[in-house]
Amino acid sequence: LQDEETRKDYDYMLDHPEEYYRHYYHYYSRRLAPKVDVRIVILVTVCAISVFQFFSWWSSYNEAINYLATVPKYRIQATEIARQQGLLNKTKEKGKNRRSKEEIREEEEEIIKDIIKNKIDIKGGYQKPKIYDILLFQILLAPFYLCKYVVWYCWWIYCFTIKGQEYGVEEKLYIIRRYMKMSQSQFDSLEDHQKETFLERQLWIRENYEVYKREQEEELKKKMAMDPRWKRYRRWMKNEGPGRLTFIDD
């Protein structure tokens, strides 16, 4: 009875002994209540998710590097750069330091992968992970990002709405990305010639973008109409698709 809340429950029980089930409810709700601070549970959960995110992204990044090392185009370029820098010659040592062919092959493979890592900028879901992208840092930096967005939004309104300035290249690409409903990483993964096409067609203008969108939809419909897999799917939907249920009586 040292706790104030339990004393109140005890006094209430003495005054109302007929409320039998209510007393049992309060008793077990306090006995079974978690003793761990909820803030600690949330912090540990966020940290666990952040660690899983980081190692998962590293795994995806390494998979992309391993794949690019098998692509002839990138492998030949990386091998040529390694030869020019004299990195491959160092692996073929003689005398006491001579190693097996397997060790030399593994070291050459690592050299090629390191060159690919330094020369190729992988974007999208397989890009090199950054510690500031994990959940923990995103939560900690959320106030900063919010203030940054408010400042940027005020600057946008002042420059382009009040003063009526013309959009720059970055601003045009930003508007196009918003029209396409793509994230920054998705938009960055597009080829440069695609972005140049967007700018040439002036897709930051809403009317031009609507025309482009209809063209893309028509082109997609034509591709799907000619695709044999899509034809099979349509036949299946027509003849045996969902909504057709049969019951077999034994």
From TrEMBL:
Location in or out of the cell: Membrane
GO CC annotation terms, alphabetical: endoplasmic reticulum membrane
Keyword annotations: Chaperone, Membrane, Transmembrane, Transmembrane helix
InterPro entries, sorted: DNAJC25-like (IPR044632)
Principal location class: membrane
GO biological process, any: protein folding
Taxonomic superkingdom: Eukaryota
Membrane-traversing stretches: 40-58, 135-158
Name of the molecule in the record: DnaJ subfamily C member 25
Lineage, uppermost ranks: Eukaryota, Metazoa, Chordata, Craniata, Vertebrata
